[in-house]
Design brief:
Elements lengths: L1 H27 L10 H29 L1
């Protein structure tokens, strides 16, 4: 299960990088090339994955506090 989580974490890093590239293109190109037309997808996916990780962390902390 941990390797699956690491894979999702890597995917989240790719999403962050794509958002950074998109913002760099918006700042540094005067014509605003539509290279990443679906840029909102990366932001929404990042927030969904982050919510998943936060929820998973809270559930595991809750389970460990019940057993202690």
């Amino acid at each position: 299960m941990n390797s699956e989580i690491n894979g999702l974490d890597g995917f989240r890093a790719i999403l962050v990088f794509s958002v950074m590239v998109f913002h760099s293109i918006l700042i540094f190109t005067p014509t605003h090339i539509d290279l990443f037309q679906g840029g909102f997808f990366a932001v929404e996916s990042f927030f969904v994955l982050s919510g998943f990780f936060i929820t998973k962390s809270l559930i595991s902390k809750h389970k460990s506090s019940k057993t202690s």
